[in-house]
């Protein structure tokens, strides 16, 4: 399906279309999403791979975890697609980099001590196989006739999902197909809004709360107890074993590209591709001097979140396949750029769902051990600044928006034996 050249489909806070999603197929009924419903899931306990930790200094003060806090596999209901989640123990760490670190940027300091609560994190970056289960719903729902759809009931609008428009057929699809799409390649080039909406859809589908990591959570998980520039040490010459980046990402055609997830060594907590392959969206606004307000004291991960107040810049972490070694460091902060990240986007206004210059940016998901309230969840998922809301409201007649139905409740995959 071609992308509409006049604009993207927005999100209406008033009137929207609804459809029940059953096994990924849209039918003309109203979906019900209840707190007591969760999906059919399948779980397996995985063995966390260990990385070479000889060069790391394990300084994280970890807290005791409940017995059920273990690795698990989540099947996306109605599909044959699954993903693995790895437990990240709570603790404290020094966020940012010391003044002596090679390649350090001023926005990485001063270092601050941050206390992190336990959470699960995706073992790998979200793949196209996973993301396309979400993205394809735009086309499926659009094919339904208006007469077959009903409005979302009053009081249920907060539960609805906005689906992204298709990839740009000329500006993006050929590049993605050259690099790889099916079979474990990382999803890339989506905006932060699209990544957040995916986590909302995934949460509604599975009955478990998923979201993007905060900047502090991402760095803590990447370091995995280390205090060095990279989770494996300070020597960038060792990146070849752990990362896809500018020096090793060329394909046979001489052009760089991302690779299938999990091909390099993981960090000490079993997370793959935390350096390179695709950079990863976090929840935070990029504020160069953000750490200064916390200098000299220990802060919680909640307190240190830079909640966005404008559409750009927002933080991506880890560097990508087109990045130089210094940009892959654990403390490196990269702010999104507009319009530079969307130069080939032919639409006015520019797409809220895709960037045309960031085939090196993707994301991974987290799930906190302590689930927040339903009201708080919306803060992690939904549009958060006036400009985005205004565009979505202007385009309410073009958007594809729906509820997601759950199946009967089953055990949490993290609790299965």
Q: How would you portray this structure in words?
A:
- This protein is an alpha+beta fold.
- 15% of the residues lie in helices and 15% in strands.
- The protein has 7 helices and 17 strands.
- The protein has helices at 128-135, 137-142, 173-179, 192-206, 215-223, 374-381, 386-394; strands spanning 17-18, 20-22, 25-27, 72-75, 82-88, 91-95, 112-116, 119-122, 150-151, 161-162, 279-285, 298-300, 314-317, 333-335, 361-362, 366-368, 401-402.
- The strands form 6 sheets. The chain has a 4-stranded antiparallel sheet, with no helix packed on it. The protein has a 4-stranded mixed sheet with strand order 14-13-11-15. A 3-stranded mixed sheet has the order 6-7-12, with helices on one face.
- A hairpin with a 6-residue loop joins strand 4 and strand 5 (82-88).
- The longest helix is centred in the middle third of the chain and has 15 residues, at 192-206.
- It is globular, with a radius of gyration of 21 Å.
- Mean pLDDT is 84; it is low at 1-67.
């Amino acid at each position: 399906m071609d992308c509409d050249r006049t604009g993207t489909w927005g999100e209406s806070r008033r009137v929207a279309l609804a459809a029940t999603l059953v096994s990924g197929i849209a039918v003309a009924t109203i979906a019900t999403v209840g707190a007591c419903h969760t999906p059919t899931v399948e779980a397996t306990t995985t063995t966390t791979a260990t990385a070479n930790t000889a060069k790391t200094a394990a300084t994280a003060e970890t807290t005791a975890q409940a017995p059920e806090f273990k690795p698990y596999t989540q099947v996306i209901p109605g599909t044959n697609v699954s993903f693995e989640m790895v437990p990240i123990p709570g603790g404290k760490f020094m966020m940012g980099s010391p003044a002596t670190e090679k390649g350090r940027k001023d926005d990485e300091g001063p270092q601050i001590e941050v206390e992190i609560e336990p959470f699960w994190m995706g073992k790998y970056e979200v793949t196209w196989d996973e993301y396309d289960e979400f993205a394809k719903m735009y086309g499926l729902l659009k094919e339904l006739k208006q007469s077959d759809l009903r409005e979302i009931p009053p009081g249920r609008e907060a539960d609805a999902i906005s689906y992204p428009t298709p990839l740009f057929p000329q500006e993006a699809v050929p590049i993605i197909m050259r690099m790889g799409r099916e079979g474990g390649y990382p999803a890339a080039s989506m905006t932060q809004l699209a990544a957040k909406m995916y986590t909302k859809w995934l949460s509604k589908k599975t009955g478990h709360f998923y979201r993007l990591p905060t900047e502090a959570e991402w760095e803590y998980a990447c370091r995995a107890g280390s205090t060095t520039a990279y989770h494996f040490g300070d020597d960038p010459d060792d990146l070849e074993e752990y990362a896809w980046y500018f020096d090793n990402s060329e394909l046979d055609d001489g052009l760089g590209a991302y690779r299938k997830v999990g091909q390099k060594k993981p960090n000490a907590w079993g997370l793959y591709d935390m350096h390179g392959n695709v950079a990863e969206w976090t929840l935070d606004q990029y504020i160069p001097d953000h750490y200064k307000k916390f200098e000299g004291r220990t802060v919680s991960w909640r307190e240190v979140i830079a909640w966005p107040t404008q559409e750009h810049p927002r933080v991506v972490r880890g560097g990508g396949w087109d990045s130089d070694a210094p940009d892959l460091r654990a403390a490196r902060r990269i702010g999104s750029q507009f319009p530079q990240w969307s130069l080939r986007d032919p639409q006015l206004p520019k797409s809220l769902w895709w960037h045309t210059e960031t085939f090196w940016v993707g994301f991974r998901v987290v799930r906190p051990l302590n689930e927040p309230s339903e009201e708080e969840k919306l803060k992690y998922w939904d549009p958060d600044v006036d400009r985005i809301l205004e565009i979505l409201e202007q385009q309410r007649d073009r958007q594809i928006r729906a509820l997601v139905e759950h199946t009967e409740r089953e055990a949490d995959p993290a609790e299965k034996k």
